[in-house]
Amino acid sequence: MDDSKNSRKGLSPFVVAIPAIILIAMLKLWPALFSIIASFYEYSFVPGAIERTYVGLENYNSLFAFENFSNLARNTFVLTLLPAV
Q1: Largest Cα span, the chain
Q2: Which residue of 8, 19, 35, 58 sits 20 to 30 Å from the alpha carbon of 2, by its own alpha carbon?
Q3: CA end-to-end span of the chain, whole Å?
Q4: Where are the domains of the chain?
């Protein structure tokens, strides 16, 4: 009987943290997944509606073909790490 009581005490902090973990996952993972999915579409903002067209990897091809891509990637990498340091 005492073993089950001890195992419940050891598990309770994790059980209490589950809603917070789910909330954080939703707030972090959903925008990331949406961004990845949205990157395969071309959006056209017309008055009263948003139209999207599937373009596949065309957005990535044009990104990597951009002449200053290496500078942009380096700057993004530096500006992303700078606040973390």
Answers
A1: 70
A2: 19
A3: 50
A4: 1-38
Instruction: Judge whether residue 10 has pLDDT over 70.
Output: no
Q: How far is CA 39 from the centre of its chain?
A: 12
Confidence of residue 45 (pLDDT cuts 50, 70, 90): confident
Q: What are phi and psi of 45, to 5 degrees?
A: -95, 105
For the CA atoms of the chain, what is the radius of gyration?
22
Tell me which H or E stretch contains 54. strand 49-54
Quick check: 41 and 34 in contact, CB under 8 A? no
Please provide the size of the chain in residues: 85
pLDDT attached to residue 12: 79
Task: Pick the closest to residue 54 from 36, 65, 38 (CA basis).
Answer: 38
